[in-house]
Design a protein that fits this description.
- The protein is an alpha+beta fold and about 160 residues long.
- The chain has two domains: about 110 residues, ATPase, nucleotide binding domain (Nucleotidyltransferase, domain 5, 2-Layer Sandwich), CATH 3.30.420.40; about 45 residues, no CATH class.
- Helices cover about 25% and strands about 35% of the residues.
- It contains three helices and eleven strands, in the order βββαβββαβαββββ.
- A five-stranded mixed β-sheet has the order 3-2-1-4-7.
- α1 packs across α2.
- The protein is globular and about 40 Å long.
- The C terminus is likely disordered.
- One of its GO terms (molecular function) is hexokinase activity.
Length: about 160
């Protein structure tokens, strides 16, 4: 099976997908508008992912197992995920609040999707293999449709005082 990693930046106004190969090289980056309505946004993500994977299956860096182009799928959103309920909270895109976005994407795509706050994704990515790789503490700030911050310590995400792998 091919080893493509698909990352989604789910913003207040756009949905952007990046596809990386097993070595971390960027193969593809595309963006579409975010419809700004919950049910339509879930469908937009589903259709975008399935369309990208269909193209990956047919591309020169083709995957030998049809429909299995990506081995991991993660999405950063402008809000937090409640560890107790799995519901989105404190999102600047208020139509996401109190919705089970991760579970709904799992169902729509018929597989597990990792959903996390976008600023946490940014900080962890920079700490892992970005500009801050090798630093013991990384603080990242996102200023866009909303604003958020993420902290990584020793290349692990720091949430509520607990480092997570």
């Amino acid at each position: 099976m091919a080893d493509y990693r698909l990352g989604i930046d789910f913003g207040g106004t756009k949905i952007e997908i990046a596809v990386l190969d097993h070595a971390g090289r960027l193969l593809l980056r595309e963006r579409v508008p975010n419809p700004g309505i919950y049910d339509r946004a879930v469908v937009a993500v589903r259709d975008f992912v399935l369309g990208i994977e269909t193209r990956l299956d047919a591309a020169p860096f083709q995957n030998p197992v049809a429909g299995k182009a990506t081995t991991s799928l993660g999405i950063g959103i402008p809000g937090a995920i409640s560890p107790e309920t799995g519901l989105v909270k404190n999102a600047n895109a208020t139509w996401l609040n109190n919705k089970p976005f991760g579970r709904d994407l799992d169902t729509a795509l018929q597989r597990s999707v990792r959903v996390e706050n976008d600023a946490n994704c940014f900080a962890l990515s920079e700490a892992s293999d970005g500009a801050a790789a090798g630093q013991s503490v990384v603080f990242g700030v996102i200023i866009g449709t909303g604003m958020g911050r993420g902290i990584a310590m020793m290349a692990s995400l720091w949430l509520a005082g607990t480092p997570l792998q």
